[in-house]
Design a protein that fits this description.
This protein is α+β, with helices and mostly antiparallel strands and about 100 residues long. It has one domain (about 5-85). Helices cover about 20% and strands about 35% of the residues. It is built from one helix and five strands; from the N terminus they run αβββββ. The protein has one helix at about 5-20; strands at about 30-35, 45-50, 60-65, 70-75, 85. A hairpin with a 6-residue loop joins β1 and β2 (about 45-50). It binds zinc ion. Zinc ion binds near residues 37, 90 and 92.
């Protein structure tokens, strides 16, 4: 019996599936987004507050309200205007 590869592959897939469910809000002001570090697979939650709702010409505007333990936000921003989120475990920046 060798379950090592099965476990890592499938639990990650399940998490991503879960994240897709969370990422489909029906216009809530606050939004919890599951984040997974691309470097060390640390899992956390980013809580965003949507702003500029209903005004698509302004693009996706949102404020980062809270990050779970293990991640922190930098003062820099990504191309889409979101704060850069960094893993404190391995210092990998979250992909936009
Ligand atoms: Zn990491």
């Amino acid at each position: 019996m060798c379950l090592t590869g099965w476990r890592s592959g499938n639990s990650f897939g399940a998490l991503m599936y879960l994240a897709q469910g969370i990422l489909m809000p029906d216009y809530r002001e606050q939004l919890d987004v599951l984040i997974v570090c691309p470097g060390c697979s640390l899992v956390g939650v980013a809580t965003w507050e949507e702003s500029g709702r209903g005004d698509r010409s302004r693009g996706s505007e949102r404020n980062l309200l809270h990050l779970s333990a293990g991640f922190h936000a930098e003062s820099e921003h990504t191309l889409s205007g979101d704060p850069v989120i960094v893993c404190e475990n391995c210092n990998t920046i979250q992909k936009d």
